[in-house]
Input
Amino acid sequence: MGGKTLEAALSALRVHGRIIACGSISSYNDKEPKPGPTNLFNMITKRLIMRGMIVSDWMNLRYEFESEVGGLLRSGKLRNIETVANGIGEAVSSFIGLFHGRNLGKMVVKLA
Output
């Protein structure tokens, strides 16, 4: 999570707000950390909670999620955004692109 994004969230959150930190793959290999927010004191004054998560933390809810979200996707009430690369020849550059933030949503390599 970039400093400016977190800084904006810390300003906008209400007292006892919660932040979920997830999906930072584009910064895994950064040589230098991104600059942090200047307003971390809001974590204290607003009594905020910030928690990291990964999808495997919630595997016990998988089937319930697939049922509910699958219905929303089928009805068109929820849209899925993907970056699609065509052909196996694009697989390596697509994978590397994940670490540089070159995708929007899921990165998919479409085969034939």
The helical segments are 3-12, 42-45, 62-75, 91-98. The longest helix spans residues 62-75. The mean pLDDT is 88. The radius of gyration is 18 Å.
